[in-house]
Amino acid sequence: MPGGSAGRTGIALTDRQRLAWLRLIRSDNVGPATFRDLINHFGSAEAAIEALPELSRRGGATRSVRIASRDEAERELEAASRYGAVFIGIGEPDYPPALRQIDGAPPLIAVKGNLSTLTKPSVGIVGSRNASISGAKFAAMIARDAGRAGYVVTSGLARGIDTAAHRASLDTGTIAVLAGGLDQPYPPENLGLLDDITDGNGLSVSEMPFGWEPRARDFPRRNRLIAGISLGVVVVEAAERSGSLITARMAADFGRLVFAVPGSPLDPRCHGTNGLLKEGAIITTGPDDVLAALAPLSQLDLFSPPIIEEPTKDSSDMMPPDDDARGIIVNALGPTPVEVDDIIRHTELPASTVYLILLELDLAGRLHRHSGGMVSLAY
């Protein structure tokens, strides 16, 4: 039985903080990395919200930044309550400990179901929507044995492999990660399965707003959460351009284990998994391959410092950077992603100044953020 990690370690948000956090993350040009930087700089979401218009103006925005209103946030909280869901902040006890560690972890997630599932060690199982019979059976076998060993199974509620993995782990616990809002699950034929998950030992998770219908570009974001929640990801069947390969790549980037099930080179559904094996994925011919590799990880302490609101810094620390410093950073940036530490070394500007100017550019829509904390200038 996996020992888990820090479990329910963290600090609960007040209702006022949760409302402000929701307003901030739903405002224009505020993604997870920007959210964290804003809280770190201003000390609270409320202070950051007040600063957004001036920050975006200084960053060169051509129009006023849209800030989610209190009424909008309250309506979404009410929608969540009606749906039987809650919002969990990244520093709170029920936030998934493994997800908290990744770059760009969502500050708030909406969840519905058995909250204890979130803090248990998890294995992701993904694969082809057009799964073969043998592929679906193998995914179910991995899911059942992982569940018996104490792991929660995380997947994306898609047809095929995802469905088989969820169904096989209903009794032991499974997490369905959605690409749209919690109230907009996809595909429609899995609505019954989703009810079985959330009414039993599992739950559904999303970082998207209530009412948000999933689009093609939202599924890679969902895949990032599957990879982030899991200690390792098992890919059962995947074509060469499968979304499951995106999940596998993200898992590798996060330092998670990647497992791949070998298949016939004549079956297009196995081209992606066979390619993962060539790239170093763990060959998986049975549940023991997964459980033996995951066992050491399940004992690790996965708790890392969360985003915590602290009193706003003194006024001398809040002085805006001058135009010269801003120009130096803009000139140093280009379309190629670079690390923030390299910007600091290259410009010889104080780190606090660099981070604040990057925030200004980001809120003005002039900055792209990339994996690994890298940034580039938007043209």
TrEMBL record:
Residues 87-294 form the Smf/DprA SLOG domain. InterPro entries: DprA (IPR003488), DprA_WH (IPR041614), DrpA_SLOG (IPR057666), WH-like_DNA-bd_sf (IPR036388). It comes from the Bacteria. Residues 320-373 form the DprA winged helix domain. Coiled coil: none annotated. Belongs to the DprA/Smf family. This is DNA processing protein. It comes from Neorhizobium huautlense. The lineage of its organism: Bacteria, Pseudomonadati, Pseudomonadota, Alphaproteobacteria, Hyphomicrobiales.
